[in-house]
Write a sequence for this structure.
């Protein structure tokens, strides 16, 4: 299994989110080459700003392992985590972070701010960007295009 295999699984999660009218961001966490947690955004249906794909995946992986420390785990996520998720990634001590698409506006892993790479903290990591970027971008763009069209239709009625 390589990075593409796992990122493809994260992309599949993003597609599931899109089917549920959630912002299509997907995430998987891998330990010893096995996917131990998978998730996608669930903020609308879950009625909670906390239900980002990364937070849900960290929670599931911690329950699976039975420890809050995810020290030997890699996270694959389709878009750069926000500041909340970046904090959770560091607190859970995830070892490696692989991101498909950078988020210049809100990304907190090097694009806007760099919470995950902050050397002044006890735990930090350097995020790896760009794998399957185009696929992730296409899913997000199609989602927001559809949303804009729906809003336009609704405002015309
Ligand atoms: Zn987030």
């Amino acid at each position: 299994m390589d990075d593409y295999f796992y990122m493809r699984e994260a992309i599949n999660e993003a597609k599931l989110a899109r089917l549920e009218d959630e912002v299509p961001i997907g995430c998987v966490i891998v330990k010893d080459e096995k996917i131990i947690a998978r998730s996608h955004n669930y903020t609308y249906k879950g009625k909670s700003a906390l239900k980002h794909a990364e937070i849900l995946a960290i929670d599931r992986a911690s329950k699976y392992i039975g420890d809050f420390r995810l020290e030997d785990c890699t996270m694959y996520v389709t878009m750069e985590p926000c500041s909340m998720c970046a904090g959770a990634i560091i607190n859970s001590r995830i070892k490696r972070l692989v991101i498909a698409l950078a988020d210049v506006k809100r990304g907190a892993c090097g694009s806007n701010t760099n919470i995950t790479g902050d050397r002044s903290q006890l735990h930090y990591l350097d995020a790896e960007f760009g794998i399957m970027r185009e696929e992730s971008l296409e899913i997000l763009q199609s989602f927001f295009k559809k949303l804009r069209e729906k809003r336009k239709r609704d405002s015309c009625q």
Observations:
- Residues 52, 54, 81-82, 84-85 surround zinc ion (CB under 6 Å).
- Strands lie at 26-31, 34-40, 73-79, 96-101, 128-129.
- The chain has a mean pLDDT of 96.
